[in-house]
Amino acid sequence: METGEEFGPWLARQLKLAGKTQAELADELKLTRAAVSAWITGRSTPRPTVMTDIARALGTDVGTVHTRTTDTQAGLPITWYHRPGYPDGGRELGNAAAFAFDADVQVLARETCQNSLDERLRDNGRPVRVRYTLHELTGETLEAFREAILWNDLFPHYSAVSEGAGKQKVGRVVDAGVRDMYEKGRLVLLRIDDYNASGLIGDDYEDGKFAAVVRRQLESLKSSSGAGGSYGLGKATLWATSALGLVLINSTLSVPHEGRTERRLIGRLELPWREVDGQQYAGPAWFGRPDPDSPGAQVARSWWADEETAARLHLTREGDEPGTSFLVVGAHDVASLEENGADGDDEPVEEDGQEDTRDITRMHSRLVQALGRDFWAAMIGGGGRAPLLEVSVRTLRNGEVVVPEEQVDPSDMQPSRTRALRAYLEGTTVERLTEAGQVAVRTVPLRLPLSGGARGTQGTHQAVLLVTEAEDKDGSKNRVHSLRGNRMTVRSATVPSLPVGTNPFQAVLLAGEAAGESAPFAVEAEEFLRAAEPPEHDRWGQTEELTLRWSPSAYRRINLLTTEVNKAVKELVAARPKRGDRAGGEVLRKALTVKAKVKAKKPAGPVVPVLDALDASVGEGGEWQIVAEVSIPRGDEITPMVPVAQLDVRSGGRPRLDWAELVAVEGCEVEDGVLRFTPGTRRAKFRGSTDVGSHPVRTTLTRLVVELRAGKGE
Fold first, then answer.
1. What distance in Å separates the CA atoms of residue 456 and residue 449, rounded to the nearest whole number?
2. Could you tell me which of 16, 21, 500, 701 has the fewest CB atoms within 10 Å of its CB?
3. Cα angle at 535 between 532 and 536, to 5 degrees?
4. Which residues pair with 357 in a beta bridge?
5. pTM value > 0.85
6. Are the C-beta atoms of 334 and 261 separated by less than 8 Å?
7. What angle do CA 570, 571, 577 make, to 5 degrees?
């Protein structure tokens, strides 16, 4: 029989929930108050016959009193608590943290899987297991779920938001989510389960992981120095991906709370300010049991649910392994529309001609793609070391399998990089590439600055660079994937200015704790690089934290690291034999008769050059400095092109920057800001510097986008 917490703390909480005092319980049981006090303090426990009387007094069954795996249902039932409007009249029309990310299941996968990696229990040496489940509900299954979340209590709040939907963005998203559920008769749930993780430990209100996720914004309490997250923003992707702004949570704790570990449930709703039945509400709401210690017993806190309740809320976990399940209610994938536009006839389209942002099979595919792209390295083991991560995706409809569970396989999605990292872990790397399938290794220095703006170097961290031959499944070739402690891909960049004829390759940079325990200054490098990442954790560069903790020029150490990496890559690939010189090549050439290749016809009209590679850095004056390479199709007439520099922004139009200087390097000329290419040339190169006066914000806090446009560049 499953047993829960100690009898004393459990009974004390049940009395609070039922609104009873120890004296009142003693009177009902016809015992002394001292006897009840002894149970509460743990000095004694009641006899089995008295347990029956206690169950009757609390309005529950004897089994609940004996096992104590859940609270009784007496007194204060599970309900929704909506935060009242602010007395000063302030209004919040949505959670600003959610606007840091797009409603994109690939962004959700990156942020949530990163969080699971950060919370992995390390002492047992096992990986954290993460499963993504897409589940479409229709018909009776949908009705049963709406009843479980007390939808009738929520509906007036959604109606109030829909009435004001035309005035603000969050309201429009919520209104569309509610209409889709009613008009299409469906609701998509996206559940993220992790196992062998810490779980949401800690008190409901005091400092701890539970409060950081459920109660607070912009708070990050990570378990290790190699954690990927640092801003406390990643959790906002859960609510951003819900068109209804609703997420339910079930956590199995690695450290007991109130003597319990299993089925700690809570729900959080993110809606904008609203007015319902003359009462104003600030925005968020919580789904839980009213806290008897709060004013009027109105604030909802987490509760210990029974198995039946967890099942009705689609939050049943497998086994008792610690970790957390997040259920995104009304999941949608708006960012897939941009990808659909590039796919042509493969777009998922509904009968009315509108793209379906809730297509569960497409969402499944995009989740697998993102997890394999961003976390391939964490899924690799070798040399007696287990992987850090195992991850899978499955798709259901009303409990029936639509797409079987798919284990993400890094060797299938990233074969070359997988080979490189596994060779490093198993100690089978070489110093130089001399034949196919080898992995070359080189250390690259990262000179760490002194904190507080002091001049000098704290120490030199030796990052590890791996280079191997590229394969077709790798996607874009000649790139460096940069990782640190939790082995999530932080940066993916092309190596510029490669010699003509270089064989395709893939490179991996292991920095910080990813370089290994023996790497000098690994912990310090981990801290430095973590501070150099923006909320998206997709690059290393200047950030406000880097400036405050080190200096405004600290980012230059990262630029120097990039320079050293590109230099080392070129040295390693330059030493490789050309593919045509491999053993057996001459024998094959003699054995085969190859027809002469028909010369391709030149295009009749003008050809359009394409920007092929870009290397950018920030100059000492705050300007962007670029060196760009252009590939030119074969043709007699080449269209003149205008380089356009813009700042990348999360939403809205990209601000355009002026050029302070544009200089032709080879294969072209610059006339009044226009590139004119030498007839017959196939490649060209130019460099440029932006005009700082045209920058709307400080350069070190921006990202640069460069395009080639025909004509006048409009």
1. 6
2. 500
3. 100
4. none
5. no
6. no
7. 95
